């Protein structure tokens, strides 16, 4: 597990003024992403304030030496995958070399080459950090599941028995993962007229929903087919995290669900463009979710003392909604990743537990990050159990309407450390295409 180092020093400021103060991207963050400018080829970059360090330009300027230069060379082709394949050591070396170049009082070489190496974020188009190889969506919040079953005699959420014994999930579609800002077209599909009863119909999904999640990006060598990853290896296999909105067609989902989600979930998954590395998040590690008395013990293949002590993350997540009739967004949910019953490392380890190979560039969704309070219900499906969301101007929402725009934000804070953020993952709902007649 990654330890704290000089790059986490909360007292360091950047000579990039926009990287100081209330920003998602201070010098202590340095997330990786990919962008295009003026219709050119994709390039890899690191966010610092409202600027981007163009890593290809940094390589051309020969700003780095040694292992950091080797890591930099891996991304010159405009894809983060080669760096992700090298693992966290290479990303850490690159981060350690960039930190003094961007910090006040550090090496002035990058500042001297700023006109060649730094690009305004407002001047580029962000794209996916890499082409997603495989996508798996997990479901590991007892609060998310328990809202549909109620509480037991202990006052704990009732969940199917499997839920507290292993992290559950399903195979999604990598082809429909899209970068923040990409609109989502309302899907057509088969659904019942009253969600769980009524006449069967085919047409535009009437109960379109969002799900607020974190994306977990896999890095390193992964595991060969037939082999598994231990808990410690799984921690090392996490390259970083992004925001993730797993759009959901609830009418289609309820009708088709005999074998699990299919067309209801492959409609689109929105991710934020920046991958916040495991190293950047090291100060915000916390203990794993405390299992209530009476819950099954953690199974041996998913137990590691260090993961129990430091496997969780204190990351605040929020979702906001802007409707076509409102110029401003309204927060509709605020929760925290600390509520997840299983750790990210346990999700990775369990995914490999049957010998399924995981590879760099794979993406896991954490599952809906819901907490115990009504305002922590991280999708409309849950929130509707307490009534629709009331919006300014008298509007209400129980499902997403055409023209609605959902934006996710995430931020990690801890006293004594610089707060870091994830940027945003946003998408607007477009009307459905006309249903085919033949």
UniProtKB/TrEMBL annotation:
Fumarylacetoacetase-like C-terminal domain location: 166-415
Binding site for substrate: 253, 368
Residue stretches making up the Fumarylacetoacetase N-terminal domain: 28-129
Active site residues according to the UniProt entry: 144 (proton acceptor)
Binding-site residues, Ca(2+): 137, 211, 213, 246
Biased composition (Basic and acidic residues): 1-15
Domain of life: Bacteria
Metal-binding among keywords: yes
InterPro entries in the cross-refs: Fumarylacetoacetase, Fumarylacetoacetase-like_C, Fumarylacetoacetase_C_sf, Fumarylacetoacetase_N, Fumarylacetoacetase_N_sf
Spans annotated as Disordered: 1-20
Keywords: Calcium, Hydrolase, Magnesium, Metal-binding, Phenylalanine catabolism, Tyrosine catabolism
Its EC number(s): 3.7.1.2
Enzyme class: hydrolase
Pathway participation: Amino-acid degradation; L-phenylalanine degradation; acetoacetate and fumarate from L-phenylalanine: step 6/6
Binding-site positions, Mg(2+): 246, 265, 269
Cofactor: Mg(2+); Ca(2+)
GO molecular function: fumarylacetoacetase activity; metal ion binding
Any single biological process term in GO: homogentisate catabolic process
Name of the protein: fumarylacetoacetase
């Amino acid at each position: 597990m990654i330890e704290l180092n000089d790059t986490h020093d909360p007292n360091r400021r950047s000579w990039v003024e926009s990287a100081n103060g209330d920003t998602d991207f201070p010098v202590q963050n340095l997330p990786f992403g990919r962008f295009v400018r003026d219709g050119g080829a994709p390039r890899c970059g690191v966010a610092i304030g409202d600027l981007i360090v163009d890593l290809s330009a940094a390589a051309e300027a020969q700003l780095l030496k040694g292992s950091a230069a080797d890591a930099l060379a891996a991304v010159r082709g405009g894809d983060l995958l080669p760096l992700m394949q090298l693992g966290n050591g290479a990303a850490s070396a690159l981060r350690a070399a960039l930190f003094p170049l961007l910090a006040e009082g550090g090496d002035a070489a990058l500042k001297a080459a700023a006109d060649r190496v730094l690009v305004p974020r407002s001047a580029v188009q962000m794209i996916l950090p890499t082409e997603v190889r495989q996508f798996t969506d997990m479901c590991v919040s007892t609060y998310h599941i328990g809202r549909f079953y109620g509480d037991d005699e202990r006052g704990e959420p009732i969940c199917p028995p499997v839920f507290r014994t292993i992290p559950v999930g399903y195979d999604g579609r990598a082809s429909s993962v899209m970068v923040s800002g990409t609109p989502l077209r309302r899907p057509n599909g088969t659904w019942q007229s009253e969600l769980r009863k009524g006449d069967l119909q085919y047409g535009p999904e009437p109960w379109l929903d969002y799900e607020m999640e974190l994306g977990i990006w896999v890095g390193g060598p992964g595991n060969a087919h037939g082999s598994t990853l231990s808990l410690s290896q799984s921690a090392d296999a996490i390259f970083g995290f992004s925001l993730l909105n797993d759009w959901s067609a609830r009418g289609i989902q309820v009708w088709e669900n005999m074998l699990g989600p299919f067309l209801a979930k492959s409609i689109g998954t929105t991710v934020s463009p920046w991958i916040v590395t495991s190293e950047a998040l090291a100060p915000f590690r916390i203990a794993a979710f405390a299992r209530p008395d009476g819950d099954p013990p953690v199974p041996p293949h998913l137990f590691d003392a260090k993961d129990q002590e430091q496997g969780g993350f204190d990351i605040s997540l929020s979702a906001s909604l802007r409707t076509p009739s409102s110029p401003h967004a309204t927060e509709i949910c605020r929760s925290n990743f600390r509520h997840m019953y299983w750790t990210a490392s346990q999700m990775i380890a369990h995914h490999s537990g049957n010998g399924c190979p995981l590879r760099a560039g794979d993406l896991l969704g954490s599952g809906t990050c819901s907490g115990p309070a009504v305002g922590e219900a991280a999708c409309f499906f849950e929130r509707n159990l307490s009534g629709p969301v009331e919006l300014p101007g008298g509007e209400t929402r129980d499902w997403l309407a055409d023209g609605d725009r959902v934006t996710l934000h995430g931020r990690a804070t801890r006293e004594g450390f610089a707060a870091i953020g994830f940027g945003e993952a946003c998408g607007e709902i477009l009307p459905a295409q006309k249903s085919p007649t033949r």
